[in-house]
Amino acid sequence: MPNPKEKIRLTAKAINFTSQSIVYSVEFNPADKKDLSGISVSLPNIKHKDLIMKSTFIDKNNMEVVFTPIHVTPHFYQALHKKILKNYAEYENELDKIYKIGEAVGYIII
């Protein structure tokens, strides 16, 4: 395998929840890198998250990174994200176990 030249960060711009996954719509960072493609790779901080990354091919036609939570269902995080969970304050710190909009969720290597 050739030596990678650069790691391009993937920054979350939206979050969607399915019954099994958390799907982040992403953009390249820096944003001027629009015509790139590659396999999504997790960040080193993944070990602090309640997430398993599903490898995904990223290109201009597919700018989504998919994760599966380890311990709870995506619906739990969706309720937290929308602040509709009963006793929200008790669980608010659980949001640190997933990525937030504006955070890097992974990168591609070119």
SSE series: EEEEEEHHE
Number of helical regions: 2
Terminal residue distance: 12 Å
Mean pLDDT: 88
* Rg, Cα atoms, Å: 15 Å
- State the domain count: 1
Helical proportion, percent range: 10-25%
The poorly predicted ranges are none
Structural class: mainly beta
What would you note in describing this structure?
With 110 residues, the protein is mainly beta. The protein has one domain. Helices cover 11% and strands 35% of the residues. The chain contains two helices and seven strands. A five-stranded antiparallel sheet has the order 4-6-2-1-7. Strands 3-5 form a two-stranded antiparallel ribbon. Strand 1 and strand 2 form a beta hairpin. It starts with 6 loop residues before the first strand and ends with a strand. The model has no long low-confidence stretch (mean pLDDT 88).
